[in-house]
Design goal:
This protein is about 35% helix and about 20% strand. The protein is α/β, with parallel strands linked by helices and about 300 residues long. The protein has two domains: about 15-170, 3-Layer(aba) Sandwich (Rossmann fold); about 180-310, Rossmann fold. Strands 2-1-3-4-6-5-10 form a seven-stranded mixed beta sheet, with helices on both faces.
Length: about 300
């Protein structure tokens, strides 16, 4: 059970996930004429105009019209193109939810939705820019694949997989992350540590914090960068004691139904940790919000210890 875990101070990568996305997009557009990037102003200024010039006619900025952004994506998909749609989570999932539901889902069309900023990556933006409800909302719809990378290198792998597929994919980028990438090619959860006294599932950027928070406990730690579909086989196959904790970087409890379904027929206890529902009205920093929601190392340790001790 010996594991070396980096401190939270060491988890910031030289290039964050959003920067990796902007660097990858020009090459993907050049490589595949089916691809089109649809923006609603946000992100347009971060793209290299020289790099995107060969595919400039497939970079569509609709202005601050998020519903139109999804409608355009649906229209492009109807013509056989593969749209990549990008903005902050609340402008990508919440505001145009009807278009996500109808223009894509109801028509059976595929697209790649790529958000940035995570749950509160820009605290100064306040509630208008907080995106912790996104995965829970998508769970009300059918047929979505959801990726939550924990490192910029994983963005590369998961984005390429997404554009090569035909379905509806949500790629959730976060400002924070882990010190090192993990193997995300298969969509299966990776075993980061084997233990005998419970299981903790760490989603995306939560992995390093979970490892640090549970370093003193004999628990299995699983890493999930793909949460939909949920890897029920790996959870069941590695289960020792029927005590399960899931730590997600978005709304707490989002994946409780998936865990319960995975362990159907197995008597178990579940603790779901994530962003709380209570609205925090002070801007602060991302570190302040992590602490307020109990998603820093000390907060996770307190919650997990209390649960497993009881």
């Amino acid at each position: 059970m010996t594991t070396t875990t980096p401190t939270v101070d060491a988890i910031t990568a030289a290039e964050d996930q959003r920067e990796r996305f902007y660097r990858l997009i020009p090459g993907l557009l050049r490589e595949d004429p089916r691809l089109a990037l649809v923006l609603a102003e946000i992100g347009a200024g971060y793209l290299d105009p020289v790099a995107t010039a060969p595919a400039a006619d497939r970079v569509i900025n609709v202005g601050i019209r998020e519903q139109l952004m999804l409608g355009v994506a649906g229209g492009l998909a109807l013509t056989g193109m593969r749209p990549i749609v990008h903005t902050f989570p609340p402008f990508l999932i919440e505001r145009p939810f009807e278009q996500v539901k109808l223009d894509l889902g109801h028509q059976g069309l595929g697209a790649v939705l790529v958000s940035a900023g995570g749950s509160y990556g820009w605290p100064g933006g306040g509630q208008t820019h907080f995106g912790h409800r996104d995965v829970a909302l998508l769970d009300t719809l059918d047929g979505w694949t959801v990726h939550v990378p924990g490192h910029p290198a994983e963005v590369d792998t998961l984005l390429r997989q997404a554009v090569a597929s035909q379905g509806r994919v949500y790629l959730r980028l976060d400002n924070s992350g882990n010190a090192h990438p993990h193997d995300v090619h298969t969509g299966q959860m990776e075993v980061l540590r084997h233990g005998n006294a419970g299981t903790v599932v760490a989603v995306g950027p939560m992995a390093d914090r979970v490892l640090a928070a549970t370093a003193h406990r004999d628990v299995t730690v699983l890493y999930a960068a793909t949460v939909r579909p949920f890897d029920a086989d790996r959870l069941r196959g590695t289960l020792t004691e029927p005590d399960v904790v899931i730590v997600e970087p978005y709304l707490a409890g989002t994946s409780t139904a998936q865990v319960s379904q995975a362990l159907r027929g197995v008597r178990h206890r579940l603790l779901a940790l994530g962003v709380g529902q209570a609205e925090l009205r002070r801007y602060g920093t991302t570190t302040d919000h992590d602490a307020a929601h109990g998603l820093d190392v000390s907060g996770l340790r307190r919650s997990i210890d209390a649960f497993l001790t009881n």
